[in-house]
Specification:
Elements lengths: L1 E3 L10 H8 L8 E3 L5 H14 L5 E9 L17 E9 L10 E4 L7 E3 L3 H7 L5 E3 L1 H22 L9 E4 L4 H11 L6 E2 L3 H4 L6 H12 L7 E8 L3 E8 L2
Parallel strand pairs: 1-2, 1-3, 8-9, 8-10
Antiparallel strand pairs: 3-4, 5-11, 6-7, 10-11
């Protein structure tokens, strides 16, 4: 089991072993990863590698957040944006490759673009619980330039052209970023695009699986279709790939 989250507030133990126990999964390898809004793609990339390498038969990937605990309700730039939620998938072996090559990376030189307002030592000393801060303009600039190019690399890595794509599920940062990515990729109108930010907000690591579930539940997307997913956020980090929808 791999759990992607930034809102499990114990340094140790990780949340994954506890969740595995609660689900009745006995003696499972279980650990957490922290890759912010790219966490789901990071996790399924690791899961795919474990299965392909023969180190696991099935992997349960969970992405979950309680960002309401970290949201500054007095910050007009973020108070309306962040939400709670979780999503999960089970990965297993297949005769058909359902997960394309990952495009991922980081830029630690921009760690202060999205940040936690205080480390835990400071929080203990001051008695003030830390919140999330964000430079929205810097995020927009990065997402509409660098991330746009990275998203195109996901398509290229899978050997697909825009007209071969069925569904596009980008991280739900804001609709203007999504619109810019659509223009850059030149996706046809036939491609279904996730826009769950309007109902669910930005759920960090849980955003992409929640958006995927919303599209599948509504019937806008269907199992077996080809989807491009990408997450990007604090770090700064990003990860994306083409997948076959479950």
């Amino acid at each position: 089991m791999i759990v992607a989250t930034v809102s499990h507030y114990r340094q140790t133990p990780a949340y994954a072993p506890k969740l595995a126990h609660q689900l009745g999964i006995v003696d499972a390898a279980a650990y957490d990863i922290s890759a912010a809004c790219a966490g789901f793609s990071y996790a399924i990339t690791q899961a795919e590698a474990l299965i392909r390498g023969g180190q696991a038969k099935y992997v349960l990937v969970v992405a979950g957040e309680t960002l309401s605990d970290l949201t500054d309700l007095h910050d007009r730039g973020t108070a309306f944006l962040f939400g709670d939620g979780a999503g999960a998938v089970v990965l297993g072996g297949s005769d058909v490759n359902g997960i394309g090559p990952v495009v991922w990376g980081s830029d630690g030189g921009q760690e202060n673009v999205i940040w936690q307002t205080a480390d835990w030592h400071t929080a203990v000393e001051t008695g003030v619980f830390p919140k999330l801060g964000m430079d929205g303009r810097a995020v927009f600039k990065w997402a509409t330039s660098f991330i746009a190019r990275a998203t195109k690399k996901c398509l290229d890595g899978a050997g697909l052209t825009p007209d071969q794509l069925d569904v596009f599920i980008p991280h739900q940062a804001n609709d203007r970023i999504t619109d810019t990515l659509l223009r850059y990729l030149k996706l046809p109108d036939s491609v279904v695009v996730a826009r769950t930010i309007r109902q669910l907000g930005n759920n960090s690591a849980a955003t992409v699986p929640m958006a995927m579930d919303a599209l599948l539940t509504s019937g806008e997307a269907k199992s077996g279709q080809t989807a491009l997913i990408i997450g990007f956020g604090a770090g700064l980090v990003y990860a994306g790939q083409v997948i076959t929808l479950p």
